[in-house]
Amino acid sequence: MPHQTSPLSAAGLSPAGAEGGAAAPISRIVAEVAASFPGERITLGDMAEAFGERAFGLLILLLCLPGMLPGMASVFGVPMLLLGIQMGLGFRTPRLPGFMARQTVRRADLLRLASVTSGPLKRVERLLRPRPGWFTSRAGEMLVGWLTAYSALMLILPGPGTNGPPAFGTIIMSLGVVEQDSRVTGWGVGLTIAGCLFATGVLVAICLFGMAAFSWIF
User: Fold this and answer.
1) What's the confidence (pLDDT) of residue 22?
2) Residue 43 pLDDT
C-alpha cells in the first residue's frame, strides 16, 4: 500500500508515536490534527484521508468522543456505524460516501473536545504500548468493527444513560487499535460488550414499559 502523507506526519507525529519513538498521547494527536487544518470546519473526508492506514482507529476515536457529551452522540453515530461495518467486513481503509465525507466538525469543537477528555484519556494512555496479540490480528480488528457498529446503534437510538457506557468502551477499543495494543483493545472489547448490553437492556425496558402503559391506557 503506498505511503500517504498526512498533517500528522508533517507535524512530526504519527498515530503510533512522536519523533524518537516516544508515545504521543492520543489527546495531543487530536489537538495536532485539529490544528493542522486551517479552515474553521474539518470534513470527515479530509480526516479520513489524513489518517491514512490508521484512519479506522483514529476516526472511530474522534467520532466516539462526542458520545460522552449530552446531545452530540446521535450526530456522529451514523458515520461511526458505517466505519464499524466496513472494519467488520475487513476493509483496510474507510470508504465514506460523498454525503458523509462532506459532513463537517468545527475545528474549535475538536480542540475543545481534546482538552475536555485529556484527563481520562491520559490515565488510559499510561497503560498503552504496542503489544501484538489476537485483538490486533485481522480477526480481532473485524470483531472490533462489529462491536463499534453495535455501539453506534446504541448512540443513535435515544435512551436515558445509554450513550456513555458504549461510547467509553469503544474509545478504549479504538485507543488499543491505534497503538496496536492487544491487551487494551481486549479491555475495550469487554467494556463495550458490557456497555452495549446495559444500553440494550435499558432500551428494551423502556419499550416494554411503553407497551404496558399503552395497553393500560387503551
Assistant:
1) 42
2) 83
pLDDT for residue 10 is more than 50? no
Cell of 214: 399503552
Q: What percent of the chain has pLDDT over 90?
A: 21
DSSP secondary structure of the chain: ------HHHHTTEETTEETTSPPPPHHHHHHHHHHH--SSEEEHHHHHHHHGGGHHHHHHHHHHGGGGSTTTHHHHHHHHHHHHHHHHTT-SS----HHHHT-EEEHHHHHHHHHHHHHHHHHHHTT---B-SGGGSHHHHHHHHHHHHHHHHHHHS--TT-SHHHHHHHHHHHHHHHHTBHHHHHHHHHHHHHHHHHHHHHHHHHHHHHHHHHHHH-
**Could you tell me the sign of the dihedral formed by the alpha carbons of 86, 90, 93, 97, in that order?**
negative
| pLDDT of amino acid 28 | 67
Residue labelled with grid coordinates 458520545: 67
Q: Which three cell numbers stand for residue 73?
A: 452522540
State the Cα–Cα distance between residues 139 and 44, nearest whole angstrom.
26
